[in-house]
Amino acid sequence: MSKLFTPPYPVPPKTKPNPIKRFRLGWNSWIHTLFEKSYTMKLGETHLPNVAIYMANDQDVVHRVLDDCRDADDGNPRTFPKHWLLDELLEPLVGNGIFVANGKDWEEQRRMMNPAFQHTHLKLTFAMMQAAVDEVIGRMAAEDLSRPVHVDPFMTHLAADIIFRTMFSVPLDAEGAARIFHAFHRFQSQMQPSITLHIFGLPKFGYRKRAVKAAAKIHTVFAEIVRERYDNYHATGDAGPEDILQSLLEARNPTSGAPFTFAELIDQISVIFLAGHETSASAMTWALYILSECPHVATAMRAELEAATGGGPIRFETLKSLTMTRNVFKETLRLYPPVSFLLREVTAPIRFRDKLLKPKAMVAVSPWLLQRSPDWWQCPHAFDPDRFERPDQADACKRAYLPFGRGPRVCIGAGFAQQEAVLLLASAVRRFDIAAIPGDKPDPISRLTLRPKHGARVRLSLRPSVPDQMGDDAPVGEV
Fold first, then answer.
1. Rounded distance, CA 452 to CA 441, Å?
2. pTM flag (> 0.85)
């Protein structure tokens, strides 16, 4: 491959920021608070007014925190549950849903929800994903392509539409998608200052209240659907079509035998919706931007696709042959992990690397740092999808690559997210030539998720023709 492209990232300062500078930088983005040594240190330490933070890059510590969640095999309580700061951050969006629950509560919720994820079986969801991808590609093709195209809203609509179809058996309309996009942007822009003020022991000055209002607007997109089916189920016993909501309506607590209440159901739907759309939208946005800067990679992906399909439509069986496309997405996740920091709480005194961590301290495991560590990765800040095929990077790919987390709380939708992304990227390079806008570099900021600060723009040019999914040749631009 030719000279490697290095996509934008905040070049870290040489020295650790003092508390005032950390406050100012953290107001907008967590990754901007990192400094040069953050990428090589084994266990960093920062003490702020409301929390002591230990940044763990040592593999033994990472393993202990994420994988070995119990003190022993005798059923003792979890030593490193999700940190209380996540409750503060996510409660307006997901309540006490499975993403933030801990201990027995988490275990019971997970057992209740496991059957629902049968509806994310990759082969069963392929046709639904393909329909959503075809629609978003058609909407992008219908834009005024003489002007730059803002990628973010399209990827938000796609990811939200796919999870909507999976959860509720209905597509998401453009109005709902726009409401989600703007409300989620509003939520992150208000919650980030709120959390920063909180960890520095300062009043929140209304930021949290405004974040709560934004979260409520996201809930309105699906609350009516959930209410109608919830009431109908408890009145008639009919849970509706076979989808995630049907499984959640029929789920029962393994201890009490009780179903989810309406409020609990909204919490769990919110978790699935957040995990199923926002993280995927972030990663697909970054992937399309990177392809705009690497046309030779897009050309290779296109050749791979045509070899796999013979010029015909993309089938489920096609996806396993798209190694290059899959590696492009994996490398995008390495450089831009949607969730850049995994936060755990110390519940009992423990010593790591000669440091005594006290209860309530935070241990932060950062996919952003681990996946850019020069100790593990060659040219760590460069885009190099071929690294996933090289033997000399195999250990790094196994041990220092965790965009979906690790251990018992690893993201259950990892395969689902990768399938929709590979399908989108393959469809995009087939339909469009994707070009960068000179000098237009998106600035990554890390809040709840990792997004371009002002969005990502590319130039799209229609390619001559593509086969539709029914197997016929369709002129470009038709949906």
1. 9
2. yes
